[in-house]
Write a structure and sequence with these properties.
The complex is a heterodimer of chains A (397) and B (348). Chain A has 397 residues and is mainly beta. Chain A contains 1 helix and 22 strands. Chain B is elongated and about 100 Å long. Classes of the chains: A mainly beta (397), B mainly alpha (348).
Chain lengths: 397, 348
């Protein structure tokens, strides 16, 4: 544990010493969270700075106590870690970019990865981009893992001001064993009045579609309508190194339509209706939500939501209402209530209520909040927790 | 008759209240009457004195009470004029623009021939449109190269700090949780003009200290997949959408949390129902469940726990072939996990 704290201190030191050559101010933010539920205590510090016009850095490190922190090693013994420590350098003119450190990489249709490594992008003529990354997959707790690495890349061509099409590859090894090898194609862009996105990832180990996703959306005045579909193959359930991957012929699909309507300047209505299927099991997937802003800036708002998830074994219906109301100056009160009724309680209780009442305060660089949370579920007949958070921002120099 | 009038008055009051609540009738302070001043022959620089020569670091040149009393010499009370006769947010918005944009009015005098309306086209429609839209800038400044390399710093000092909501075509107006993956993967460099590594890592980072909803517990309207009583229903949600969890979580996450919370591990009662494992087809519910949701099985029986499965399902064992019809894999039989069952000497 001492080593972790030392490393966290070193990280903080690196961030703190960065502004010596900073052209822009170093921005720091510290937050302390305390709760009677896990994590019982959490201190985060994040910062970013632009040292020169071509070099910037950012970091977020944390110290905490309580089970369930991060994807902790068995036993929940993580008490400090780094989420991000990244340097980003841009070539003059923006033709190339490199990132180094602990970062999240994405490549086209392939799953995002949290890596300790490097990633780069080069812009070639004819609006062609080449991206590549390599590194060691991040594991919690600052532990060593041998023979773990991931590498991949993407070649894409930009379309218009946003989006593009591309082909990507990814290979990941865990303890030297092949865990993921995928090839993906992706595309996103505007065609006429429609926004189109789509991606397809092919698992070359199991030789099947790992992920396919597509959507088309259009808007007319205050109305936005969208059709979407998602197919997830077994390769996205467990890695190829798991024995359970040999079971994999069960895919999950979801398809539906979504409409977002600004019914009035302060009132948004969202309806999402679809269906999902998995392993021969078919279920409905319905959401209806309304958001009413209490002022033109949306500082105060009310929302009500009804959700229905169907299926044979895991169906439930839920309703949620929430409010955020500015009460005076720097104070904002909020509350949230949720009631969930499972179709098959199976001894878990017929109704799972959950409620929270919070009070937040902001003044200058400071902000703070306290809350009381109460719930009843299959895990606890009834439970009441309190939460408190205080944060502060700094700009240096 | 009086009752009819009372009902009509009540209906009118209700409609007026609804119109106010829904924003159909704008409440609060009115916008500054720019149109009335222009039609009265008052030029812009009469009130905004000096703005034509203003550089990027010069004052905002918002008019004060002294500018008003030059023409309106008898104010009806002592309060600041713009406190009531303008949108109280307008000055703040102008200060935000000054802080986050590189812009000098004096550099635009020649191109606009001193005509403020050339850029401030919506000023007559209310204070909400004092700041010209970005499309107005692009009417003259093409910025093709800057757009190509995603370099917004020619005008925007710091987009991440500015927090300006992007135009609707940038995927923020749909179901962000579901939709962002496609465009973000195809144009990650565009996302990074506003969002740093921390934005992605707070969900996709395996060392995230807690879920974002926990850190923003005082804002119930913040988007999150783990809102409210997610903890109670997470098993049902995972079962209804196999694979969705692994978009952010590592496969080991289930087992680690279940062990840490004491719901799994040695000495715990089996959560499985009767007839979970047996010798006949009717007593073997575990096979169907495992095929339906292998991640759930792996959450307790992953790693060393796989030996439990191999005891029956190895080649030559009593458990039979767990592979589905048409099973394919490019892994050699000597690789993990194949060799657990197809070890040396076993039939292929």
């Amino acid at each position: 544990m001492t080593g972790r704290r030392t490393l966290a201190a070193v990280m903080l030191g690196l961030v703190a010493t960065a502004p010596a050559a900073a052209a822009d101010p170093l921005r720091l933010r510290g937050d302390a969270l305390a709760s009677t539920a896990s994590p019982v205590g959490l201190l985060t510090l994040d910062g970013d700075a632009q040292a020169t016009s071509w070099l910037d850095a950012e970091a977020l490190v944390w110290l905490g106590a309580g089970a369930g922190l991060a994807d902790a090693a068995a036993g929940g013994d993580a008490d400090g870690d780094a989420l991000v420590i990244a340097l980003r350098a841009r070539a003059p003119g923006g033709r190339a970019e490199a990132r180094l450190g602990r970062l999240v990489v994405t490549a086209g249709a392939l799953r995002p990865l949290h890596l300790d490594g490097a990633a780069g992008r080069v812009r070639l003529p004819r609006r062609i981009d080449v991206e590549a990354f390599a590194g060691v997959p991040v594991v919690p707790g600052l532990t060593d893992r041998g023979w773990d690495w991931a590498a991949g890349g993407r070649v894409g061509r930009r379309l218009g001001d946003w989006g593009g099409v591309g082909v990507a590859v990814l290979e990941r090894r865990d303890a030297g064993r092949l865990a993921v090898r995928e090839v993906g194609v992706d595309g996103a862009g505007g065609v006429g009045a429609a926004d189109l996105t789509g991606k397809l990832a092919f698992d070359t180990i199991g030789r099947g579609v790992a992920l396919a996703q597509a959507s088309i959306a259009t808007r007319r005045g205050p109305l936005r309508a969208e059709l979407y579909g998602v197919h997830r193959g077994p390769a996205h359930l467990v890695p190829a190194t798991s024995l359970f991957s040999v079971l994999g012929d069960v895919a999950a699909q979801r398809a539906g339509a979504r409409a977002t309507w600004r019914a009035a300047p302060r009132l948004d209505v969202v309806v999402d209706a679809g269906a999902r299927a998995s392993g021969g099991e078919l279920g409905e997937d319905l959401t209806a939500r309304a958001v009413l802003r209490l002022d033109d800036r949306g500082r105060g708002a009310l929302t009500a939501e009804l959700q229905r998830i169907g299926g044979d074994a895991a169906a439930w219906t839920g309703v949620r209402v929430a409010a955020r109301v500015p009460i005076a100056g720097a104070w904002v009160a909020s509350t949230e209530l949720e009631l969930v009724a499972p179709d098959a309680p199976d001894g878990r209780g017929a109704l799972w209520p959950w409620a929270l009442a919070a009070l937040a305060w902001t003044r200058g660089a400071w902000d703070a909040a306290i809350a009381v949370e109460a719930s009843a579920s299959s895990e606890h007949r009834h439970r009441v927790d309190t939460l408190a958070r205080i944060g502060r921002r700094w700009e240096l120099p | 008759m009086s009752r009819r009038w009372a009902l009509a008055a009540l209906a009118a009051l209700t409609l007026a209240a609804c119109a106010g609540v829904l924003g159909l009738r704008r409440g609060g302070a009115p916008s500054f009457p720019h149109r009335a001043h222009v039609t009265a022959g008052v030029s812009c620089v009469t009130c905004h004195a000096g703005v034509a020569d203003a550089g990027d670091d010069d004052p905002l040149h918002l008019p004060d009470d002294a500018a008003c009393v030059g023409c309106h010499p008898r104010p009806h009370d002592a309060r600041p004029c713009l406190g009531c006769h303008a949108d109280r947010f307008a000055a703040g918005a102008a200060r935000d623009a000054r802080a986050h944009l590189t812009f000098a009015h004096r550099d635009h005098q020649a191109a606009s021939s001193g005509n403020c309306m050339r850029c401030h086209q919506g000023v007559a429609e209310g204070d909400a449109r004092l700041r010209p839209a970005m499309a107005t800038c692009w009417g003259c400044h093409e910025h093709d190269r800057a757009r190509e390399v995603r370099d917004c710093r020619a005008c925007h000092v710091d987009l991440a700090e500015e927090g300006a909501p992007p135009p609707s075509h940038l995927i923020h107006d749909g179901d962000f949780i579901r939709d962002h993956g496609g465009p973000a993967a195809a144009a990650a460099d565009l996302c990074s003009t506003c969002h740093g590594e921390r934005f992605c890592a707070q969900c996709h980072g395996v060392t995230a200290p807690t879920i974002p909803a926990r850190r923003s517990f005082a804002d119930p309207l913040a988007p999150s997949v783990h809102r409210a009583g997610f903890r109670s229903r997470h098993a049902d949600e995972a079962h209804a959408a196999p694979g969705a969890c692994s978009s952010c979580h590592q496969p080991e996450r289930c087992a680690e949390c279940h062990l840490a919370e004491g719901v799994a591990g040695r000495g715990r009662a089996s959560p499985h129902p009767p007839r979970w494992v047996g010798l006949t087809a009717g007593e073997n519910e575990h096979g169907r469940a495992a095929r339906r949701d292998p991640a759930a099985c792996a959450s307790c029986h992953g790693g060393a726990g796989e030996a439990l499965c191999v005891g029956c399902h190895r080649v030559g064992g009593v458990g039979g072939n767990p592979h589905p019809p048409g099973w394919r894999s490019s892994l050699p039989l000597g690789a993990q996990p194949c060799r657990l069952c197809h070890g040396p000497g076993a039939a292929p």
